[in-house]
Automatic annotation (TrEMBL), chains A, B:
PROSITE patterns: HTH_GNTR. Keywords: DNA-binding, Transcription, Transcription regulation. Residues 19-87 form the HTH gntR-type domain. GO terms for molecular function: DNA binding; DNA-binding transcription factor activity. This is GntR family transcriptional regulator. The lineage of its organism: Bacteria, Pseudomonadati, Bacteroidota, Chitinophagia, Chitinophagales. It comes from the Bacteria.
Length: 231, 231
DNA sequence: AATGTTCAATATGTCCTACATATAGACAAA
DNA sequence: TTTGTCTATATGTAGGACATATTGAACATT
């Protein structure tokens, strides 16, 4: 019983997964929604009709619908039936993104994804940011003087969060919020939190007076300890 | 009965959502998984036990489990029961990311997200890319000479896809693949596909001979038409 | 005309029972 | 040790039943 050999095999072959009818129905429903090119608000057939049309029990249909409902693709109302909704694309993500469950490789990948995002923010920032934004960011940065460590962590989050917010892209902002726990988790694994040569106040002053290229260099310097750990 | 007014109201207020028991159970199960800090492969109680413990019918439990199963958080096997799995974080995403269903604001957000990613790739690229990578990329770029438009679109995808691949971050790569339809959709909405001053072969030559900063500037020039449309 | 009230129809939400089916785990055979 | 056989069992599916909220209409009130 070579355990690791089995693990290898299983990884290479992939498990055989007998699709349940709920899986099929879920797929068919999604295809149906797409095919009919239904718009949000449009009514859907009722459960019993779907069950009959698909030749499965209402239970199976409900399992599939339950999934779509979770993803926010449909909404159901007591007597009216179901309507197509505008799904919140990040909602599903949120449920799964638990550092304790995600495997280490993916965890590292996500950490890197955050670095990529942070480095790419500049171009949006320099299009959208306002003086008021910078003022607010400066306040956050100034809060950091003479504070204990736990406060610093919170402030770190606030600072970078504000940066995302300043892009005026709310999906991006929410994405960042979701990635936070992963970031925190990876940081915790590392020996000690080092900060780059440029701190938050340095970044603020660049935003106020410097060019976009300056900011990109500054951000890289700020994140350099993380980049140095890449391999 | 101003229809659009009602629609607006509903959007601003949000609907009141009476949680179903399946919602509750789903939440409780997720909390349970977290609290017990179960590792992938660990066994879970069987459906009937869960139902009894939670004081709900097996149906409700199954709906909740069906959701977790879809997210890849658990796997069920016929006689053994359920085991905690290592969820594929992007799986859920994939299902929802249909340009036809996502609302326009989010669509624009995602498009911008892609720009951010693309601009941020450089730092990972210059750590990980190999000569062989660049060779392959060059081949893709050289394929573009004297080809019809539909081929160009495919090649465009291949080129940028290869860039993501070169970061050695498979999550990032998969993420890009998922965003492709959105990208294509947004592009299709725009008058005509313009390309920046630097084309793919230009980027390749920078990768081969230029610095990271050169590449960042090159990528910006390449994507400039898109950045110009931002507001 | 706008707001309240009543009321019946009905689609979803929930529970229950029953049975089919795959398979884990034990044991037997090679 | 490997391979075949068997059985208990947890999931998968079906279908019936009923509770419940809520729509939409009809009607009364201000």
């Amino acid at each position: 019983m070579n355990e690791s050999l089995i693990n290898d095999l299983s990884k290479n072959l992939g498990r055989v997964k007998a699709n349940t009818m709920a899986d099929d129905v879920e797929l068919k429903l999604r295809q149906y929604l797409k095919k009919m090119s239904l718009k949000p608000g449009d009514a859907l057939p009722k459960e019993t009709d779907l069950a009959e049309a698909l030749g499965v029990s209402r239970n199976v249909v409900r399992e599939a619908l339950s999934r779509l409902r979770m993803l926010g693709m449909i909404e159901t109302r007591k007597r009216k039936g179901m309507v197509l909704a505008s799904p919140d694309i990040l909602q599903a993500f949120e449920r799964v993104l638990d550092p304790l469950i995600i495997d280490d490789t993916t965890l590292r990948d996500i950490f890197e994804l955050r670095l990529v995002l942070e480095m790419g923010l500049a171009d949006l920032l320099y299009v959208r940011m306002t003086e008021a934004d910078i003022d607010e960011l400066e306040q956050i940065a100034n809060n950091e003087i003479n504070k204990d460590k736990s406060f610093l962590v919170k402030n770190e989050i606030a600072f970078h969060g504000k940066l995302y917010e300043m892009t005026g892209n709310s999906t991006l902002k929410r994405f960042q919020i979701m990635l936070l726990p992963v970031f925190a988790y990876v940081i915790a694994l590392v020996d000690k939190p080092v900060s780059g040569k440029i701190d938050h106040r340095g970044l603020v002053s660049i935003l106020r007076n410097g060019s976009k290229e300056d900011f990109k260099k500054g951000m890289y310097a700020h994140l350099k300890p993380h980049f140095d750990r890449l391999k």
